[in-house]
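Final report, closing paragraph on structural work. Over the funding period we assembled a curated collection of sequence-structure pairs, and we close with a single example.
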Amino acid sequence: MNQHIEIEFKNLLSEKEFQQLIEYFHVGASNFKTQKNHYFDTLGFTLKNQDSALRIREKNGRYELTLKQPATEGLLETNQDISEETANAFLNHNTFPDGQIQLLILECGIDPKDFTCFGTLKTDRFEFPYKEGLLVLDHSSYLNQEDFELEYEVTDANSGKKNFLTLLETLQIPVRETENKVKRFYRAKFQK
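Its predicted structure, as stored:
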């Protein structure tokens, strides 16, 4: 298990703006890697109501359980590597993985047996170092829709925000209020 504070800036993009960034940074199609996020909550959305989220990320044949919770600045992200067998037991039989995240869920007053998987978001991602952070280009598909996004993960919020806004301004990309992926996923799921 590891924990860290996640500070990131996000901006939704049009497909044209996404292509503009690909060209600006000379990114080839083969640079993108596919990952899947499987989202979990209780039927009453206990985590969502606590501004928290739980997912299994499937990437390069590895599985990672992640709990995101509010922090003073950014989000407290707790990650726990799990086996494919453990991931499938949670996805298909609601068997919550043993470990630190289960203990944190219990501390939140939630019964781990109450979780269910609400669905999967697939992302083609390219990430690379940029100034003092990590720049991420995402093309996500979920529930018969898609979106394009630029993320910038940093350790210092002030300089990170300045670098991010300068990049958007340089490329004449408008700043857009952008919800995180899990919120966009749930919004799409329940608008049906």
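The first helix runs from residue 15 to 24. Helices lie at 15-24, 46-49, 84-93, 100-107, 157-170, 181-190. We thank the funder for supporting this effort.
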